[in-house]
Amino acid sequence: MLLSSINYWAVLVTGILSLVLGFLWMAVLWAKPYQRRMYGNMNQTDSTVSTSVKIQSFVLYILVSFVTSIAFAVCLELWKAGGQAFAYDGERLSNAFWFTMLLAAGYTLPFTIGKKVWQFKSWIVVAVDTSYEIVRFTMLLLIFWYWV
């Protein structure tokens, strides 16, 4: 079965590292421009959200990070196996990188661009979110590729 070939230790590590990367990307590196345009006045937001809601949000995001890691691991395994069936080199990291960028574009751009189109967020929010996803998917690729 496909799920039995997944390295669940790598899933655990990439799930946690996704959270760390997200914190560093959005709360440290791009904190001021991102938070101002994403959330507006942070003092209002912090005072109106209860601690239990914040904890629930964090736990939900942890679960989503693990699901993303599992889904990426499955896609990468299918891509490697497809190399034999469709005559491309599934064993080259450079080819896997472009496959990863295709996945990142196909699955994250609709959500990041949607923030501009439907939520009327700034292009800075779109750029920070999109660049985070590109870096995160590259991190996932490198960890799953080299952690055999």
Automatic annotation (TrEMBL):
Pfam family, one: DUF1761
Origin: domain of life: Bacteria
Name of the molecule in the record: DUF1761 domain-containing protein
Coiled coil location: none
TM regions (residue ranges): 6-31, 58-81, 93-111, 123-147
UniProt keyword list: Membrane, Transmembrane, Transmembrane helix
